[in-house]
Design a protein that fits this description.
Strand content: 25-35%
CATH superfamily of the largest domain: Metal-dependent hydrolases
Number of domains: 2
CATH class of the largest domain: Alpha Beta
Number of strands: 20
Radius of gyration: 21 Å
Distance between the termini: 18 Å
Structural class: alpha/beta
Number of helices: 9
Shape: globular
Bound molecules: zinc ion
Helix content: 25-40%
Order of helices and strands: EEEEEEEEHEHEHEHEHEHEHEEEHHEEE
Amino acid sequence: MIAIKNATLVMRDHLIPEAVLFVEDGKITGFGEMRTTPIPENCEIIDAQNQFVGPGLVDIHCHAGDCHWFNQEPLEAAKYHLSHGTTSILATLYFDTPKADLLKQTALVQAAMKQPEGTNIVGIYMEAPYMNPKFGANRVNNPWKGPICKEDYQELIEAAGNDVRVWVVAPERENIESFVQYAKACNPNVRFAVGHSEASPQQIEALMPYGLCIGTHHTNATGTIINYPGCRGVCVDETVNYNRDIYAEMICDSRGIHVDPYMQRLIRKIKGDDRLILISDACWFQGSTPEDYIGVTDLCFDFQGQIAGSKLTLDVACRNMMKHTGASIVDVFKFASYNPSRAVGFLDRGEIAVGKRADLVFVDPWMNIQRVILNGVVKQ
Ligand SMILES: [Zn+2]
């Protein structure tokens, strides 16, 4: 048994300072204040030196880590994110990809999940195939922009099987319901997200009974329906804000480019702390950093100098969220661990509680990672 002493435990809604936590067989077996919780003999002792110890971070939407794409080098990408405290990650595949390649990438990730080094890859987030090509989904070359038909999607759905946790859809695509129904029939636990879309509230809400419960990178790559010139319309962002059962993913970069800090505070106020999810949506494009952004390490640029996604890791996203919204360390652990776990149906992690997986991170007050424990094994 491992005893982690002198820890400040980050619980879902409070802290326990000067605490000890016990780990055995990959699980949390107990915890409490040190003054009332004796440490049994023969424990392996880890001294947390009064650092914060919280649940491992859970990134449900991530395409790459460092210079490795999940669709090419999933183990390398996963290793990089593990070193930043992400103990569960959904490898995210993209709509840009023709069916044969998407099938190959799915198989590559599935093989990686079975490797010991792939322990923190816990499934696939399919940001594919049926987006609205008008909204950041490759208007010209999107191979999935034709009519939705079973011959195209059946093989992909069946190959992804239970490994896919989330399918992103644009609910306004004609015949999307047939795709959603089939995906749900093949994998009853799957969730759906609305993304790269200009769907109406009614089109989105029609898919909620099938398990649509996530807004993909909220306020990014969404349209606005204008019913009358000069009057603000309602569309995807408003629907995600309005529906209590929909989680809002947020890309929280240091400059507040993807979501303006004011918008972050607004979303937090509307959605509440139980429905916010921090994601990295990390990519790997190799354009150089424009002059205005020198020193910014969490944004990705293409060769034209345009922002092309993030280079975030969740520890950095948490730090940015604290800076932009005043969220506490308890709050950001909720946004980056508990909420994403619950959104995709992982009930065995995301919080410090007896019986949960011993996925733990040690951090300083600004979420700098000091140590990572994955499934009860010290990784760093
Ligand atoms: Zn993405």
